[in-house]
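User: Second chain of the day. Same drill as before.
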Amino acid sequence: MLSRFTEEDTSQINRELPFAALLFTILAASEVTLYESWKKLCVIDHLPQFKKEAREVVRQVEVLGYDPLTVMQKRAEKTKSKNYREFLLGYVSAVRSGGNIVNFLKSKLRSIFDVQSAAAIRSIERLGTLVEAYAVMLIVTLCSYILFIVFSATSIFEPTKIAKTPGISTDVVCLLIFVLTPLISLVFMIIAHMERKSNLVGLKTPYKVAAIVIIAVSVFLASVFMVPQLQFLRNPQILPLVLTICLLTVSIPPAIIYMEIARINNAAENAMPSFLRDVTEARKTGLSPEKSIVHAAKRPGYGKFSEVLRLIRSQIEWGVPLRKIFASIKRKIQTWPVLVNFLILVETIKMGGGSSVALEILTEYSEKQKDVETNKKSMLRPYVILAFIWSVLIALTTTMVALTVYTLTRLSLPGATPMSFMVMQDQMSLFSLGILVQCWLSGFFVGKVSEGTFAAGFKFSAMLVLTAHVSLALSQSLLGGMFGLV
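Assistant: Same format as last time:
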């Protein structure tokens, strides 16, 4: 258990290290001392792991009387993160040798960025392997559906029935469809959650709305199976449509809320490097940092992010302090990299006057970070398309096998017992329900893999459920017409 927590801390340190190194670099370029840089990290909530590290460094300096370089060397010996260890030891060596600290930090920041880019590519490769494994699981599930259809329609297991040996019953199939397969999907979601981190922080509203809707839908479904007046909704031809409507009802409201949140945060991630570039270029002309921000905020073309920039511009013009402006930004923006970049911008201006050199470092790193995120999203996009292919193929294949087996049994082939039309309908309804539930769960897996948050899964779940239902309806209608079934 202890090692698991150590790995989690190491992962968090590696994630926060580029921003902490960036802050060190900018403050050093602004001629802020090393100890003041550590003290600044003590109050930065958006870097929680480095906040703990900074408090430990400050404690050992002020309480135990060590100098900052000695404390940094001790922390390097204790940390499990190789990247963090090399950063600390390199920093200590550069200071003690009397070298140029800013040049060292720039070089180290570039190295950290390269390592982060390589780690992002490896993460995408692991996610790709995970998606492929999930696809294999769906194929195995589909094969199980097909085997049950064939076994239930033929007399292959007739000797086992005579010997009173338990065969494949409907209860076993229900256990497979509604218990075992969803549990396997949940395992894949947990693995994806450990591998893919979200940039959005404090995202709770979609889940709260979903919880309320789930309670209402659960009450309705319980009424369908318990109230006699609603018995007609349990008809095999109607029940899949009822379940589709219920799943869409659960997914659509939180999906709408999430898409509105994601729209402004995605716009902020895309526009932040351009905004910082405008601030930097304006600062190079001799404008004050505040006037440089106002100048950059006037530029059009930022989309939804323009609303936040108008708020920033108006507050600066009214004389509101930058730190209070940052507090108001946190109520509008929830994407972690943008918030950290804003925070570093504010602290750079407040601590070091916002020199053009420091702003150039911040801008350059922000631009590189955007390129990494853009490449990651483009490489993960094909997996979203793959999910829709799953939904269509599972629906089409299951329907085709069921109708084909039913038609063959009606021809009284050797080893086949005729299947009644009602039994075939019940089977089709059961498998349709299983396919709809599986596609709904797959949406959350796809949302986590592609966008890093399960909240994104609500929109994918709604689209996949709708795709599966349309595929089932069309395949049953078209194939039923081909086989002469009504």
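The radius of gyration is 29 Å.

User: Great, on to the next one.
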